[in-house]
């Protein structure tokens, strides 16, 4: 089924929040899912997969232990691409100074790529991400993709390396709508449903409407 990018962003934001992410990180996850979907990637499928993998797991367990380390790693030995990506964007200047930042054991690394778009816009220079069999580069508006579908959609990258500045070759332009699998949409909807407050007897009565009031 086809959805507008606005619909994808709205659903992704509520689903990420329902999965336990802060509103700020949920917003970033939603923007990233929209960004990937705009470039033809199954953003909703990847987000749904990540939310299922990390469901009920404290964020600290899948966050980088230190942003100053030579290689970033997480206590759980698997890192959230959303948390790591947001940290990368915050460390954009450090990325340019070092030339590269390396992360270990990152789940669904493609979900970290939109964050390097933000880093590229901050730096005014393209940023690249590489893992086994895949390389992507972006200036924040355009995206260059190299690698097989299998490599790009890998469930886990043992080493994910970001570098700047980067070369832009084979550019892709974004689109306005994206195809979304029904299964991934339903999974996101289940997470999103957690954000709804449970009904109380009072709210149910209010929702029942004027049938309970006597205006005679």
Automatic annotation (TrEMBL):
Protein name: DUF3726 domain-containing protein
InterPro entries assigned to the protein according to its UniProt record, in alphabetical order: DUF3726
Assigned keywords, A-Z: Plasmid
Organism: Phaeobacter porticola
